[in-house]
Design a protein that fits this description.
32% strand, Pdz3 Domain, Thrombin, subunit H, single chain, 25% helix, 20 strands, 6-stranded antiparallel barrel
């Protein structure tokens, strides 16, 4: 029987354990069938695919915008000039590729030599491009032959935002749009960064953000070598449009390094080879280390009879290349000159400097009053005893700047001093 204490308890005074016992009941979930489970998994998979698709579309849509915002800073292109071993008195090091190793001229060795050269050419080819004019008109000749109007270019530098392409300026005539085709066959829009009609060179740019990973894996920036080290008899290879089509390849030797090409305000060494050449062709000359040593330009000794390849020596062009690569105008005054030799000093009593052979009729030099026969002795107070030092002094100035040229002019009583105030121009 229950005791009195239990009988006298109020409902509100029930033991805590009994009062809240219903809260301890366990609620069992309704069992899930296999069909429901499969439906849930399919639903999750569909949601995942939809979210992934939207994520991919968003990435590709935002990629150009993000690249434009977060692209790297524009870097100044610097191309160190090369020393001439003849001027420094240093011995010219032997090219590793020109070693005196004894080779057996049998069929096997010949095939090995050619295979090795082809491998080097294939590596150098990664820096070669074809620059084509975009006119919007149908090129029927290209349709029939597969050969487009183009010039050979070389990837000369990378400024962090653009790949910079050095090419022949002849492709710029009456054209405002260009495309560049890289080694993998992909073509990209290109912009004319700068050109110099004096040397016949142009610099094009391709936006780095537009270049695909596939193209990046197939190309490289070419190394600009030291052409001052090239000697007669060195083996070289040429790549480009030297034979009338854009993907030509040729091997040969340097037949001469004794000649120079003159242009206004300077001159450039010419590397002559025994490689076949078609008039008007363009290309790039490499040594066996895969370094650029020459630029084959249509402006080198324009003659229809020319059948062997000649190239501007790259070392004499590096200052011009650096100026154009940084988007600046190449300084131009407009004189053809030559160094006053010791013989001329002795026989004609000429002063040291640069003898003016010719003056461009439409040039800052003509406007300043410089005449044929004048001898330029100083540029902004710097002595110029040769055409090379004069060329360097001019290239160190900037287009639009006023500089002072001091010289001598032959009069009735001998040479007298003359001063010229010249506004430096550009030939674009």
């Amino acid at each position: 029987m229950p005791n009195d204490r239990d009988q006298n308890l109020n409902p509100e005074e029930e033991p805590e354990e009994k009062k809240y016992s219903f809260l301890q009941e366990t609620i069992k979930p309704k069992p899930v069938s296999r069909q429901q489970l499969a439906q849930q998994l399919v639903r999750i998979a569909i949601y995942g695919v939809i979210l992934g698709a939207f994520a991919c579309l968003g990435f590709f849509a935002l990629k150009p915008w993000m690249q434009d915002i977060f692209r790297g800073n524009l870097e100044t292109v610097s191309i160190p000039e090369d020393e001439d071993p003849e001027e420094t008195g240093e011995d010219v090091p032997e090219d590793e590729s020109q070693s005196d190793e004894d080779t057996t001229t049998n069929e096997d060795s010949y095939e090995k030599i050619m295979a090795s050269m082809n491998e080097r050419a294939a590596e150098a080819q990664k820096g070669i491009v074809s620059v084509k004019a975009v006119t919007g008109e149908m090129d029927w000749d290209a349709q029939m032959t597969g050969i487009n109007r183009s010039v050979t270019g070389v990837i000369a530098a990378d400024n962090g935002q653009e790949l910079l392409i050095l090419a022949d300026s002849s492709i710029c005539e009456k054209v405002k749009k260009w495309s560049v085709t890289f080694e993998d066959g992909a073509s990209y829009d290109a912009a004319l960064k700068k050109r110099d009609l004096n040397t016949g060179l142009a610099m094009f740019s391709v936006n780095r953000g537009n270049i695909t990973d596939a193209t990046w894996s197939a190309i490289k920036v070419s190394v600009l070598g030291n052409s001052n080290l090239v000697k007669q008899g060195d083996v070289v290879m040429s790549l480009g449009n030297m034979f009338g089509y854009p993907d030509g390849m040729g091997y040969g030797i340097v037949s001469s390094t004794d000649y120079r090409a003159a242009f206004y305000d300077g001159e450039c060494d010419v590397l002559s080879t025994d490689i076949a050449y078609e008039a008007g062709g363009t290309g790039v000359l490499f040594n066996m280390a895969g370094e650029v040593v020459g630029i084959v330009s249509s402006s080198v000794w324009k003659t229809e009879e020319q059948t062997s390849l000649n190239a501007y020596a790259i070392s004499d062009l590096k200052a011009v290349i650096e100026i154009m690569a940084n988007g600046e105008s190449v300084p131009y005054i407009g004189i053809h000159g030559t160094t006053v030799t010791q013989a001329l000093k002795d026989d004609q009593r000429m002063p040291s400097g640069v003898y003016v052979v010719d003056v461009d009729p439409d040039s800052p030099a003509m406007e300043a009053g410089i005449q044929s026969g004048d001898v330029i002795c100083q540029v902004d107070g710097k002595d110029v005893g040769s055409i090379s030092t004069y060329q360097s002094a001019v290239l160190e100035t900037a287009a639009g700047r006023i500089i002072r040229l001091q010289g001598r002019r032959l009069g009735a009583d001998g040479y007298v001093e003359v001063d010229f105030s010249v506004t430096v121009g550009s030939k674009e």
